[in-house]
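Structure in, sequence out. Go:
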């Protein structure tokens, strides 16, 4: 008996450097789910090893701005000098087909999705502490000191916004964090308000 026909939108968010990407990849490697990743569009240049259409759709500033005007994004944000956005049509199509769609986005964007799609599940991925976040940004070695400082300053402004999310998952260990997210997704499926209408239909329960 399948109670949820429309897929669930899962928003993974949190400060840059917290390990959202690594946790998301670990989540997708786990068994027993039907998750689809929404590939974002960005004007940031590709890092070494990143593939267009796989990690991101890399586009010019002009193209991104044209798409903003066409209202092609579910959400978009400027992050440390570049645009990032979630293409709307693909997300909608996958949800209609019953897939769980995962967004991995920064905080401003997540709050825009909250306004537009209140039935999505919002997970704030937090570092175990500030020191660990700083060390992770340094270790990544892909950004200049100035960019790292900007990302750290931004993180300081994002920490207080965690209360706007449904769940907080501390990324102490990647596998643990991914496990907890999968447990959240499973629990969300069983939530009464997501399944009650279909349940009543199947069980022929009267509205009274
Ligand atoms: P990075 O440059 O490290 O790949 O990404 C910078 C930040 O932008 C990260 O926090 C990442 O999660 C976020 N991001 C990636 N894609 C999107 C998106 O489509 N929308 C928003 N709002 N943020 C995104």
């Amino acid at each position: 008996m399948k109670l949820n026909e429309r897929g669930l939108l899962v928003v993974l968010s949190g400060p840059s450097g917290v390990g959202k990407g690594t946790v998301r990849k670990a989540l997708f490697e786990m068994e027993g789910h039907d998750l689809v990743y929404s590939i974002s569009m960005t004007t940031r240049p590709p890092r070494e090893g990143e593939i267009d259409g796989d990690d991101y759709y890399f586009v010019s500033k002009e193209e991104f701005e044209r798409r903003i005007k066409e209202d092609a994004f579910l959400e978009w944000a400027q992050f440390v000098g570049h645009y990032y956005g979630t293409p709307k049509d693909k997300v909608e199509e996958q949800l209609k087909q019953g897939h769980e769609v995962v967004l991995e986005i920064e905080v401003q964007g997540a709050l825009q999705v909250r306004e537009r799609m209140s039935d999505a599940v919002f997970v704030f991925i937090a570092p175990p502490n500030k020191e660990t976040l700083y060390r992770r940004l340094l270790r990544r070695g892909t950004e200049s000191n100035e960019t790292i400082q900007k990302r750290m300053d931004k993180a300081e402004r994002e920490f207080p916004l965690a209360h706007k999310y449904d769940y907080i998952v501390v990324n102490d260990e990647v596998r643990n964090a991914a496990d907890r997210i999968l447990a959240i997704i499973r629990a969300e499926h069983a939530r009464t308000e997501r399944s009650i209408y279909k349940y009543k239909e199947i069980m022929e329960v009267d509205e009274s």
